[in-house]
Write a structure and sequence with these properties.
Layout lengths: L7 E5 L3 H13 L5 E5 L11 E3 L7 E3 L5 E4 H6 L1 H9 L4 E2 L4 E2 L8 E5 L5 H11 L2 E3 L4 E7 L2 E6 L4 E4 L1 E4 L3 H5 L4 H7 L2 H8 L2 E2 L2 E7 L12 E3 L6 E6 H5 L9 E6 L1 H6 L5 H15 L8 E7 L4 E3 L7 E5 L4 E4 L8 H19 L9
Parallel strand pairs: 1-2, 1-13, 2-9, 7-16, 13-22
Antiparallel strand pairs: 3-4, 5-8, 6-8, 10-11, 11-12, 14-20, 15-18, 15-19, 16-17, 17-18, 21-22
The structure holds flavin-adenine dinucleotide (FAD).
Flavin-adenine dinucleotide (FAD) binds next to helix 1, strand 15 and helix 11.
Length: about 350
């Protein structure tokens, strides 16, 4: 097979699928080829985001993914990656006290990310040696002279030899440009994309000044009967990083039905409703120094792309590949499965050599 010239590859989405795909593809791209990541947000992580308090203090809170839960199957399949993350201190076995739920089965091990969950994503971005451009919202994807042209909301254009799109599927379906015709010309793919659905929920992060003590016997608590709150974690305690110089932080997740009910409301007004419920559940909770609300319109996969293929190739030449948890499942191993499918599909599209180190 003829090798395709591949000087520049763009990954849209600085979440865990985008970052790990970039790291894998960098290994098989020719020397000198550039990998660039574009993300519409202001930081790395996507749904594995770690939020910092805005008062200049160093407290952080994971507003999206909380744990890395690894079953026996993936402990084998992704053993080398898990070991690498553990040896670098990015993952640590969880020892915290959890209340109110049976947390997975016997064969599942739970890990926390001491430096915040986004540190996992940053690890892969670094491995890829990728430049990340933030606040670049891709709105249009076109094919021109066997190249892919991406256009952003600010009107920036990016010409590249291939693209991996890792945003949630409804955001892929919103893209303009010739990608629309590409999707329309593959009715089965279009139908499968349209059938993907996500749960939605709100998250609230609470930041406290140093010296404040949250004296609960648990680090994580699930609430099954509350109409609003389903999960509260004392985030620094959950991660095993409590310190006198950094104040504690708390994350609250709402239930999916509550999220659905308030879907179109502003996150700040919903934040007040959530805090009312938190105060009923934990009447003695101290007043935080800062409260941050977040709406996860696309939280976790409710219905994945049929048969969970890992990725979907929309175009072979130039390669336009769709990836993310929608094509697998919503956790670290699901996203790593997606990125290894991206690598295989990319080799198939381009004829570039197989890497020696496989996931
Ligand atoms: P994303 O992280 O969504 O990344 C996509 C990126 O694309 C985003 O950064 C977004 O800003 C960007 N983007 C979107 N549209 C555009 C555009 N047009 N132009 C440019 N950029 C764009 N997983 C676990 O393993 N354990 C957990 O405990 C866990 N709990 C969770 C709790 C919550 C509340 C949520 C929301 C998720 C949770 N998950 C958990 C799921 C996990 O976070 C996701 O499966 C995973 O992060 C998905 O990664 P991704 O890279 O596929 O997508």
């Amino acid at each position: 097979m003829m090798k395709t010239a591949m000087e520049k590859l763009v990954v849209v989405g600085a979440g865990i699928t985008g970052a790990s795909s970039a790291a894998l593809l960098k290994k098989i791209l020719p020397d000198g080829a550039v990998v660039k990541i574009l993300d519409k947000s202001r930081g790395t992580g996507g749904r594995m985001s770690t939020s910092r308090c805005s008062n200049g203090k160093s407290a952080t809170v994971d507003l999206g993914a909380q744990y890395i839960s690894i079953n026996l199957h993936y402990a084998k399949v992704h053993q080398s990656i898990h070991e690498e993350l553990i040896s670098q201190g990015l993952l640590k076995a969880s020892t915290c006290v959890m209340e109110g739920d049976k947390f997975g089965g016997e064969d599942i091990l739970h890990y926390v990310a001491p430096a915040g969950i986004s540190s996992l994503v940053k690890h892969f971005v670094k491995q890829a040696g990728a430049e990340v451009a933030y606040e670049e919202h891709v709105t249009k994807v076109d094919i021109e002279n066997k190249k892919v042209k991406l256009t952003t909301l600010k009107g920036q254009e990016e010409l590249c030899d291939g693209v991996i799109l890792t945003m949630p599927v409804p955001q892929i379906l919103q893209l303009d440009g010739s990608i629309r015709q590409l999707i329309d010309s593959q009715p089965k793919v279009k139908e499968n994309l349209e059938n993907v659905s996500y749960s939605m929920r709100f998250a609230v992060g609470l930041f406290y000044d140093p010296g404040v003590t949250l004296s609960y016997p648990w680090a994580v608590k699930y609430f099954r009967d509350n109409p609003c709150v389903c999960y509260i974690a004392i985030d620094d305690k959950k991660r095993g990083t409590e310190s006198d110089s950094v104040g504690p932080s708390v994350v609250i997740h709402t239930s999916v039905p509550f999220g659905m009910k308030h879907l179109e409301e502003d996150k700040d007004s919903v934040k007040d409703i959530i805090m009312k419920h938190v105060k009923e559940l934990l009447p003695d909770i101290p007043e935080p120094a800062e409260v941050k609300g977040h709406k996860w319109r696309y939280s976790q996969i409710h219905k994945s792309y049929v048969n969970e293929p890992g990725c979907v190739v929309l175009s072979q030449t130039p390669p336009i590949i769709l990836a993310g948890d929608a094509f697998s499942h919503s956790n670290l191993d699901g996203c790593l499965t997606s990125s290894s499918s991206v690598r295989d599909a990319f080799i198939n599209c381009t004829g570039l050599d197989q890497p020696t180190n496989r996931l």
